[in-house]
């Protein structure tokens, strides 16, 4: 087994396609297939299942992929250490982020980092909090952005994001300066299922109020469109709200409810040199 075969295998798993993996590393589909076959022949087990539905890991593949990712990460660390000794900053960082944070902050953070370290590659995987924490656990991403509560990871706090009530223009509650949980009783409620629902549900539970949930929606924009369409009202993070809202109005909650957003990683001590530099850039941006 050589490192290139390992790299090809990891790209196939990441992209779920021989063609996409080949495009990423400059191989034809047959070239990718040849390297995977050679790897499986050498180690004596089948790692991937191929059918019309796509490509998935076999049981053996699931067992060995954490170790293969660890080998790839260790080699990347070695390359980056050597580059640092030679006065160069190179490497690749894979980052997990959730949609509202991606839209608001990732372009600026990537721009700052690339200006400082132009020879680095920044890759992003976007998903919900649980997906990001799973990617951290599996080694799919080096670091991520998520909100508390988190388990089995290190958490570096960056910012506090208040949650707001969102109603449509002309709603009977739209004239109020703030809303308390009692205002939601008997109102059609659209629950945003993108990670903050635990905070919202816990707050309702503490107040012994059961919201009338009419819809469960994962996408921020869909929830906003449904509120604007007068299908219900919601609670969502301010970070997810548009800068120039149309046909909707956001109102603060009383008492305030907020989420704490931060960097998550397995271990800051064991991050690659370039990933450590990225965390420094992020902390400088938010904390100073």
Task: Predict the CATH topology of the domain at 159-258.
Answer: D-Maltodextrin-Binding Protein, domain 2
Q: What is the CATH top level name of the domain at 159-258? A: Alpha Beta
How far apart are the first and last residues' alpha carbons, in Å? Answer: 45 Å
Radius of gyration: 23 Å
CATH architecture of the domain at 159-258: 3-Layer(aba) Sandwich
Which regions have little confidence, pLDDT < 50, spanning 5+ residues? none
Beta strands, count: 11
What is the 3D form?
elongated
Secondary-structure element sequence? HHHEEHEHEHEEEHEHEEEH
CATH homology group of the domain at 159-258? Periplasmic binding protein-like II
| Tally of alpha and pi helices | 9
The major pleated sheet works out as: 7 strands, mixed
Structural class call reads: alpha/beta
Q: In which range does the helix fraction lie?
A: 40-55%
Strand content: 15-25%
Describe the structure.
The chain has 288 residues and is an alpha/beta fold. Among the domains are: 1-86, Orthogonal Bundle (Arc Repressor Mutant, subunit A), CATH 1.10.10; 159-258, D-Maltodextrin-Binding Protein, domain 2, CATH 3.40.190.10. It contains nine helices and eleven strands. The strands form three sheets. Strands 3, 4, 5, 6, 9, 10 and 11 form a seven-stranded mixed sheet that branches. Strands 1-2 form a two-stranded antiparallel sheet. α5 (99-116) links the parallel β3 (91-97) and β4. α1 (3-15) packs across α2 (18-25) and α2 crosses α3 (29-43).
